[in-house]
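Lab meeting prep.
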Amino acid sequence: MKKTLLKICSLSLVVLTLVIIAPTAVAKAMNPSEGAGDEISVSNARAAMLLDYDTGSVIYKYNELNRQPIASMVKIMTLLLAFEHADSGLLDYDADVVISETASGMGGSQAFLDAGSSYKVNDLLQSIVVASANDSCVAIAEKISGSVETFVSEMNAKAAELKMENTRFVNCTGLPADGQYSCAADVATMSRELFSHKKFFEYSGVWMYDLTHPSGRVTTLTNTNKLIRAYKGCDGGKTGFTNEAMSCLSATAKRGDTRLISIVIGGADSKKRNAEVSKLLNYGFANYETKEVIKQGDKLSEHVKVEGGKVDSVEGAYADSFKLFAKKGGNLDCDISYEFGAVSAPIGENDIIGRAVISRDGNVIGEVNIVSCSDVEKKGYMDIVDDFISKW
């Protein structure tokens, strides 16, 4: 096995948690660490959390495992399943959805959809993200799974997959229902998953838009997350309110390379809830930061040797990023080694040809795949003859 070591320069950081940012189980695992302790607390909520989006490092937690209603934050899972179906090609954003009587008749927050009329998936998803539309949630659930009941089963299956052990869904809207509950830690888990979908942010930063119905009627929808205008860097989130759950919010904000998620469940009202979320975010941005050690797409300084190919080597690049999240101040060193097995042709562009292993103090803290930047065809008979002649 071929290895090369590269010393990373000292960073002004004290690490809380180090994980690889890649589509692996490691990348999506929550990594609780010592929180803010007595430095910060919430006083107007039943539960709260503050964490780094990229690594899942927990900065602050309060009653994070307590099971309780979360109101419309249930829609985080509804949206997550919708975006996953779209990514896999099972749901087309331009597809038409015929609105059922059941969907049209939903109460609470809604887009006031017309029963029997057709709406685009894109419009329905935007109305859910912006205005928390219950009728659109039911329409999307019926489009994906045929019925709300089947869709809810998929929601619970996804929760189990994500190891959300303190969550049970009964509906796709968050309207009051016996036996439906979640917790701040589980909301954090599904929020990280949802915020990994770039399409979500195409909707979440919209403050106000007009939904034009097939009949020509227009409904003006306003974003329920007021922090996208009131808090610097806030570009998304999901609000919720019922008398039982009280005021809830999972909001994300990004400043520089650092993206944080702040969650409050059971705030007394939206103003106090927003204040608590903002206070947590302020603490996080003031005291922590993210540093990118490996950048997705960057190319290696040396080509990778290829056996049996029409060319002898191929350019390699990092398949994913690797980030460190840490408290400001202090010192950190880490090493990157490269491992390549027998790389043989044929090779397709973006095929895995090796990996970068990141370690600290002799302990591996993450890995990033290295992929080929181009195709390499296998050497044929005439190529072998030509090589022989050229060396004669």
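Slide two material, second protein:
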Amino acid sequence: MINPHYQQIWKTVQLIPVGKVACYGQIADLAGLPGRARMVGKALGKVPKGGWQGQVVPWFRVINSQGKISFPVGSEYFAKQKQNLQDEQVVVLGSKIKLKYFQWQPDLAEILFSLEF
């Protein structure tokens, strides 16, 4: 059985628009799980291979609160996340993304009508 909190996280991550990023803590808050940033990381590591509910969960759009990719520089997953972000026109300098320009800032209507928690 899939953890229901993970499902909340996946659904929230699916709302991040192309070309934007969100922080682990931000996703936790929006998913109704304040203070559970680490759970977000765990949930993203457990996304089913084919996605969830027939849709891709864009895990690569989630970064840490300092605006950095959390995987070790030079690792396979670091390279994959960086490339996926760059493919969406997100500028990645080293391992850093400027949150001022690329952080997802959903408006209240988007949250109220898209999330069911």
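Talking points for slide two:
Residues 76-87 form the longest helix (12 residues).
The chain has one domain: 4-108.
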